[in-house]
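Supplementary Text 2. Reproducibility record for the structural model of the 311-residue chain.

All settings were left at their defaults, and a single model was retained for analysis rather than an ensemble. We include the record here because the model underlies the residue-level annotations in Supplementary Table 4.
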Amino acid sequence: MFAGEHTPRPVPAARHILTLDELISLRHWPPARGRGRERMAIRDGHHLSHIRGRGMEYDDVREYQPGDDIRHLDWRLMARTGEAHTKLFREERERPVFVMTDLRTPMYFATRGHFKSVLASYATAMTVWTTLANGDRVGGQLLGGIEPQLFRPSNNRQQVMGLISTLAQLSGRAPVEEKALSLSQTLASAERYLESGTLLYLFSDFHDVDESVQQHLMRLAQRVELKLVLISDPLEQQLPQGKRYRFLGRGREVTVDADAGQQQRYAAQFSARIQLLEKLRNLSGVEFAHWQTDQHPLFQLPPSHMKGKAR
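Retained model, structure tokens:
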């Protein structure tokens, strides 16, 4: 997703918030584009369709058939074999990219590293600028706030800036009143408006993942390419033994002092969340990665982290 840089990316100044200037500055960190494709027209896109025809990418040859354009004859092959063959091509098609970013209340949390909301927003901005640099249309939906924030895929920089500006507004503060749609409701809506062939990124802690969410994702996987990134805090995976934790927020205080049984049930719930998402990995076109707030690839040299297995 972000491959091609040779130096670390800038780290957000604060662990709990990202500013608009920081999100905009990430446009200077695009990946290396595919070789030989830098000058390709934006509307041509950079993704091969499975439709064979008179495209730009050589695919195969077949025996000459009456009516074939003689401009596409493979003269070298004909010189070697004495038989006429026609070159086949695959067309270049534009592939829209769509980023679904979870900015609901549970994402504004971290005991170590940066807030989950900061990592999700940072990754979203990187995906947006990367997509524009590659000449594709990009859109997204931001989960959080009272009204769903939906931005249709576009390569118009002004429209994309609307997405980035809203992202900065939402990532800077947790929703005052949690009325956001559930993940299941959001995905049900996405099934209706996402185009076939879309590349869909979903950054979330998946705190409300269930079998309904799994079914929506399975149906989406039949016609879009899915890249799922679970973002969690180490404390969500396992509670430390023999320690009492006190949490403060919005005038409320919660003390957690779990016994062995509670710790076991807590760990089992997180494990079940992972298992629901892991089942999707076996589907064609689905990739799943697990980032932790203190262990993630965003501010490091980026290897092929999207292909990494969940920890």
